[in-house]
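hey so i finally got around to running both of the ones u sent me last week. sorry it took forever, my laptop kept dying halfway thru and i had to restart like 3 times lol. anyway pasting them below in the order u listed, first the sequence line then the structure token line for each. didnt double check formatting much so if smth looks off just lmk and ill redo it

first one:
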Amino acid sequence: MTDTPLWTPRAERADASHLAAFTRLVRAKSGQPLPDYVSLWRLSVDAPALFWPAVWDYTGLIGDRRGPALAGSGRFLETRFFPGATLNYAENLLAAPDGRLAIRFLQETGDETTLTRAGLSALVSRLQQAMREAGVKTGDRIAGFVANQPETIAAMLATASLGAVWTSCSTDFGVDGCVERFGQTAPKLLFCSDSVVYGGKRIELAARAAEIAARLPSLARVIVLPCAGDATEAAARIEGALPLDAFIAPFAAAAPTFTRVPFDHPLFILYSSGTTGAPKCIVHGHGGTLLQHLKEHQLHADMHAGDTLLYYSTCGWMMWNWLASALASGVTLMCYEGSPFAEDGRRLWRWAEQAGCTHFGTSARYLDALAQSGLAPCEHWPLARLRVLLSTGSPLSAERFQWVYRHIKRELNLASISGGTDIVSCFALGNPTLPVWAGELQCAGLGMAIDVVDDAGHSVSEAKGELVCRRPFPSMPVGFWNDPGQARYRKAYFSRFAGLWAHGDYAEQTRHGGLVIHGRSDAVLNPGGVRIGTAEIYRQLEGISEVLESIAIGQKWHGDERVVLFVRLRAGAKLDDPLVHRIRTQIRDGASPRHVPARIVAVDDLPRTLSGKLVELAVRNVVHGEAVANVGALANPEALALFRDLPELSI
């Protein structure tokens, strides 16, 4: 790591941040000097009964807060936050229904629409009336096989307003993938988009939606949302379906009503990737989700009312839920549906410039692809209002950090963030008052008592280990759906270390107070007994233009383990001896001799989940002749055949 930060906030910018104002508030409440972020973070984890009410007050959360901030023993599964409080997530997102823009929606076709906060409120009102008429009650599940469009957000908010539970899959899911998820949660209504456009192709969704609906006996109705096609025509192809207009036609817009529910009342059901078995149905509550997102949006991402957030996401990724919650901070959402590389990668950046985007969110994989495409946004658009670039989904390499500052914008808080579906939020985030160091997440999230430990559960500093959390936090799952006695919940997070939440990331705390994620701990390599994070290998390939993407696995070999690297090459490139030598030399010089793969194999494709994450464990299973637990969780399961019985791996 370099000794010079890539970016340091100007004093006036740091002083004007939400985080600076919040620190002053907590300083007054606690009587402690809190001279720096570390001292504020320490208070936030040591004094949660002071900290979380301060977040509630500062962020303006709407609700009835009665009783203590925490109750229980202090152990993870025995602690409850704000046990006497009642609130409603949708009420907070729909506050101040005025003429300000709530959502800008752009499709790959170039069609753009906007919706004001008043317009969104009116649509939610009509939807909630129609849903009541359809028999939706508190606790019912409402599913979405939907595009990232304004009507989807309205359907989610109408669901939440009634105390019902929203759950969604993106439109790139197959029928089996949707049924594996929705079939566990038994939704009463299914919303689906009529069609989408991706990569220049129109993709009709009615046939898949009809088959999904036929396999969900709990459904009472299907509602088709207008997107890139004809909702009326699509609805006619689905038994029991209505287009949105017909569903809400009998009801006039009025002020929405909101059912205030307990803090832990279910709000969302999210799903694990399902690559190691049936997807886990992870239930998140109204209060924990909202409070955590308000904290992250305002204190860590420094979002202010009037800001504009674009997060490229589908409705099957938790970042869609995170995006939607920004409405509670008075932020305008930029929702995009289509390929991020439309117009040779220019579409999103041109739109960001035109719309005055202040916060641009994406994945590390997208930034890798953008860099490989040769497009430098700073050469085309000044992006004058852009203050924060957010990246998540996989580790962002130090080289890619440097690329962002060279080719997107110099005066920018590049915030690599990490958390996940399990917590519908982040353990480590950006910080508007701290420097950015290449390859590092800036800080632990406030209220998140994270640590890095060795195999015995002992803290380690500036060394690699397991990322854990030592104390409860509000956005812990309420539980897993249909999990008697919380058996699956306990096994998922608490079976590795007694009394600690084990998140499954292989990480390292840095001397700057930041964090480096080295990959998933279940994919860690172990040649000769030395643990290696796969991200350590991947980041060495950043400068090798012939390699588009790669997967590294550990292959059992003669009583030990050897590193095998699979690479997908750019069109026209060949994995000849000179390229193999360059790859090995780069890994040896940039990482260590231990990281150098024993075998490098070129393949035409790499398996990935429906959310776009490469699946190391599935490849490892195929190489060892073992079954892949849930092939339906993969976007391209046919790619697995490329790794079966490879002669290169028998020598």
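and the second one:
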Amino acid sequence: MLQNIRDNSQGIVAKIIVGLIVVTFALFGVESLVSLTSGSNAPATVNGVDISERDVLQGADLQRRQLLAQMGENADPTLLDDNLIRKATLDNLIQQEILVQSATNQDMAISDQALDQMIVNTQDFKVDGVFNPDRYQAVLRNAGLTPMMYKNLLRKESLIGYERSGYMGSAFVLSSEAEKIITLDRQTRDLAYLKVGLQDYMKDVSLTPAELTAYYDAHQQDFMTDEQVAIEYLLINKADLLKEVKVDDAELQGQFEQLKAAFKSEEQRTVSHIMIEVSDSVDDAAALAKAQDLEKKLAAGEDFAELAKTESDDPGSASDGGNLGVYQKGMLDGPFEQAVYSLKAGEVSEPVRTAFGYHIIKLTDLSESKAPVFEEVKDQLIAEQLDNKVEQIYVERVGQLTDLAFSSGDLQEPAAELNLKIVEAAPFSRKGGNDDVTSNQRVVRAAFNEELIRDGFNSDPIELDSGRTLVLRVKEHIRPRQLSEEEVRPQLTEILTLQKAGEALQASLEAELEKLQQGAERKPVNGAEWQVADAVGRADRKQPAEVMDAAFKLPKPEQGASYSLITLNDGAQAIVAVTAVHEPDLSAVSADEKKAMRNILSQRSGQFDYQAMMEARKNAAEIERL
């Protein structure tokens, strides 16, 4: 079941839907959904436009599937608060409607033909690289969508994307700003650093029993055992039930007859095209002239696929010789489809005008889907029959286990009735155990349920995955206890040794730093030598990251060097010195490099502008929650 949820929430369809309702989750995080909060305010209107109940339910369902997929194999649907998901979905649908209205008010639009082209070029709808109508319908059906609903969602996403692209494309920065960033980016520094570890200071640390006792007394809460439980459980595994079922040949034949009866032969048209785009740089007349010239070349015998590779302006199909895959009646609207269904196999159309430009269309193949043959589908039918039979037994056994576990005081009777082995698990804490059962969070939550611990009841059935269900009982509850000083003495010794060594190291380097800042010569400390590196750039990976970070934060030295004292991730400490700062020669930076930097900075500026626009539109909108 969980695998089906994951499968149905992946791909471009889910991404488009979830992409339209992502803002609130970016702001509040997945954790905000895992709670006991309740309440929802749906539906709503935005500037007089309704957000329907269906939109809220559909968006919440898709978001729920996506979250379960992100939570992984042990995803527990009970962790998700449906009311909070619903409210967050509504918030994001309001944001979506605000942005769609904003784009529409800017006279932005997208044609049905453009949406159709996006659909047929979507990878999730292709089989072996070509559009497949059955795959298209199946993906949408699994996502709970009709083609009309999906097309509407795609239209909204496209409109929002157009306006966002407008902001991103119109933002700009001055050349002087770009040059400042390039200067900082290409600046190099001469640096030196002295890294001193804890080891040499640890050997000089001495601890008294009184110090150990004092630390233990002050931190007793840190020295407690974890609360633990020991459980026993009964597991029903669907894989173990396969040996109880056999293939029924008569039933197999019946399955095949049903498959044949449901089969409908459909005409399949495989289509290729060469598209000449009409754009700001190529007007309608020029595009038509080029298309007519290509038409003449084809009539003279030139290869369609080769011309498509070199001449077509459709990047999605040009590299494949213009191949658009398989079409069925009703997939496209307007002149393109009319041309497709007016051709015979192998024929090429005249130039056909659409919203994109001119198309020369070739019907590369015309065929009928073939009825299934028993031998070709036999293995599939056998697998389906066995799976259905095992599923039936599995559901029945889980039901029996549920009833027996509820009425029994322990697991003995259910084990005997169902011929199951009682499995005993080693004690584990609330963090979970070391095997796939006791590390499962649903098992952990059930095992630490106060009622099960107090009264010794059997748990409700717990589904580990789509093929395994168990019932558990708590055998022993091990409460946390205070560890004695003697038990934690090695831990105390290690903690205090590191603490004292760190204090000694800190004091030693602070004294050395003070001397250096007063102009003293850089000398080794406790056997550690200074490391020197000249003309180091920001992207240098040869030096420790913490040293690089500190070096490029230090001010340019007026004389001598600039210094700082830092602590490294491994507990060592270092004095970092910058002795010189070298500015780059901007005359050596090419115009293309400066242009690239301006583009990067412009995109960042566009992002900020777009975010500001979103906030302004939201503040100005009339939003009513019903």
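quick thing i noticed on the 2nd:
The longest strand covers residues 357-368.
anyway thats it, ttyl
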